[in-house]
Amino acid sequence: MRMPYPWGLVELKGLVLAGGEGTRLRPFTLSAPKHLIPLLGKAMIEYPIQHLVEAGIRDIGIVVGYLGHLIEEYLGDGSRCGARLTYVRQERRLGIAHAIHLAIESSFLDRPFVVYLGDNILAHGIESVVKRFQEEQPDVYIMLCRVRDTSRFGVAVLRDGRVVKLVEKPKEPISDLAVIGIYFFRDPDLVKKAFSTLKPSWRGEYEITELIQWFIDHGYKVMYDVVTGWWKDVGTPEGLLEAMYLLLDEASPRIEGDVRGEVLGRVIVEKGAVVEGRVYGPAYIGRDVVVGKRAVIEHYVSAERGTKIVSGSLTRSLILNDAEIDLNRLRLVDSVIGRYSVIRCSKEIHGEIKLAVSDYSRVEL
């Protein structure tokens, strides 16, 4: 018979994992961790932190590794986000389960907790999920999402409404339910015991699916929910753009900057921005952005802080901080432009271009 835990209903702790190198997002992650890439004015990692804080979880650990000092400098003590942050270093990227184990060994995780991957964004946050975890008090609680391609995720096999098996990145399709990057655990001591039985996988990592499988195999209460809204694992340039589209679809229009040109549809114009050209929503115009008279921002564009759009048309593109775009008559589509980069066309060229340009780059056409 499962004995009750001594802490009962207490405020959870949160753990956000941000130690990865972001190899699939190169070249954008060569000079900064992917978790600091901005989307609609917020660093990617701020979305998980915001969701935890909204759910009443303010004591949050951040697992850092690759370029982790930049994350620490950006987030500080967390007060700006309404949180109390503690940093845990993962010197070697040995997997999600290993990161959780480090946070337990460091004595940060000493009561029920939720793990949220720092490159995941979930529609509508996790308030309702936290409430159910607190009420039902399972040993493990996972969230699932139906996906077409399961080869990139851990997947769950269900039988009679129960989770019976988890498989990390299966080579053959065995389920369409991906385990998304949000995990709840009730007892850190049990997690530590489960971790002690693990061995590195063929990838050289301690897999979170194997950790949770231990709980299943030993008869512990493992609950799940299937996500009904959208969820995005932001691991590639295409994933960045898709996350931006989804966030823009839910954004409420707001004009705080100086609009001298034309703004139509759901558009956010932040303080300090100047719009002299045309902007068609949904679109995001960040702080201190300048949209020139000869520039047209079409649908699904996020121009992050300090960007200067001199001329040309942009659609379905993410322009990172302090980049400059001067395209003349060209149209930029499906592109990601890195920080402090300059994209310039001095010739009368018509047509479309698609670019993925890293920070501090220069493209002359």
Shape: elongated
The count of β-strands is 30
- Percent of residues in helices comes to 10-25%
Nearest-integer average pLDDT: 90
Uncertain stretches of 5 or more adjacent residues:
1-7
Structure, explained:
By secondary structure, this protein is of the alpha/beta class. It contains seven helices and 30 strands. The strands form six sheets. Strands 15, 16, 18, 19, 21, 23, 25, 27, 28 and 30 form a ten-stranded parallel sheet that branches. A seven-stranded mixed sheet has the order 5-4-1-6-11-8-12, sandwiched between helices. The termini are far apart.
Describe this structure in a few short sentences:
This protein has 365 residues and is of the alpha/beta class.
Primary descriptors:
365 residues, alpha/beta, ten-stranded parallel beta sheet, 7 helices, elongated, disordered N terminus
Produce the secondary structure layout.
Layout: E1 13-18, E2 38-39, E3 42-43, H1 46-54, E4 59-64, H2 68-75, E5 84-89, H3 96-105, E6 113-117, E7 120-122, H4 127-136, E8 140-146, E9 154-159, E10 162-168, E11 177-185, H5 188-195, H6 208-217, E12 222-226, E13 231-233, H7 237-250, E14 254-255, E15 258-259, E16 262-264, E17 267-269, E18 274-275, E19 278-280, E20 283-285, E21 290-297, E22 301-303, E23 308-315, E24 317-319, E25 324-333, E26 336-337, E27 342-344, E28 351-353, E29 356-357, E30 362-364
Parallel strand pairs: 1-4, 1-6, 4-5, 8-12, 14-17, 15-18, 16-19, 17-20, 18-21, 19-21, 20-22, 21-23, 22-24, 23-25, 24-26, 25-27, 25-28, 26-29, 27-30
Antiparallel strand pairs: 2-3, 6-11, 7-13, 8-11, 9-10
Helix pairs in contact: 3-5
